[in-house]
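REQUEST ID: PR-0412
SUBMITTED BY: lab tech R.K.
PRIORITY: routine
TASK: structure prediction, single protein chain
INPUT:
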Amino acid sequence: MENYKVTNQHTLFLFSSLNISIFGLLCCLALLCMPKQISAQDHPYKIYVHSGLIEDSIEYLKSINYWNEKSHHEEQDAPRIILVASSKHWKHRSKDVPVEVKKEIFYRTITPMVLFANELILDDREQLEKINKKLEKEQTLNPAELNYLQSKAEEYGLEVIADLKELATLLLERVDIIPPSLALGQTAYESGYGTSRFAVEGNALFGQWTYSGKGMKPKEHRANKGNYGVAAYKWPFDSVRSYMKNLNTHSAYQGLRDKRAELRRQGENASGLVLAETLSSYSEKGITYVKTLKSIISANDLEVADRTYLRDEPVTLIVGIDRADEVEKIENKIEDLRASGELDRIIKEMRLK
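STATUS: complete
OUTPUT:
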């Protein structure tokens, strides 16, 4: 497993069996089908419950105009879908389809979450840029702006200093997007296209290590590396955001942030292939890891994701289950959660805004 240190971890949960609750459904990766829409009360999210058949997955992607593996390089938009639970059978069922089909399902599942996570980062960056412009004009920040600046500094691992101009500059180097092609290449590499034990058991899409004592232990644990484990997450989306936060905060990836900031100053966009060059510290394999990562990005035309945007539409939460005959039962349970207000609480906990 790739060597990766995590600074800010969410509460860790593992889910090993299906039980009839939204939390018990949380496993790992695959977009599954035969949808029925359920609207949560008082918010714009839609929910689809799916059975676990690969062919149904493809039919669903076609139904939302998001499938054509032969024109992968032409993809320019993506639906606002977020996987919150999936069938454990992806690891085995994906073996029965051509590799390219397996990859397409995987990439098209992950891409919207990567774009959405970047969108949230850009929302913060826009606010910080407004604050920075006021500081450049020697204007005084109001209490809300000052609190925002300080809270973001703490969130992104920076010491709050008296020089607010410098603080804003340092923050803008950290609060920035990760090229989708880079994220897609790394999650494919680290999770084995969603089939690794850590991905299946803990939504661990990027092989991130934690020394909290709560991580999933590798089968071949190396004592000389300390009390490490692979960080697990409640939702796949949390894994995406944690990955981005680590690249944006950990000292090992200062080179990535420096290169990205340099390209911004030059008016250029940072590509996955360019920033991949800075990630020799992500893995014990060093430069070999970088070469393999770049090969994955190039061979799969992943840089098209750097030019892809999310559609202007409500977010759809995808709930995949293992058995088709359980669909109605899960739909009824979600309706119960909606009626009780629990569904709203769960979605709020996912921090989608």
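NOTES: Strands lie at 37-39, 46-50, 77-78, 81-85, 209-210, 229-230, 309-310, 316-320.
REVIEWED BY: pending
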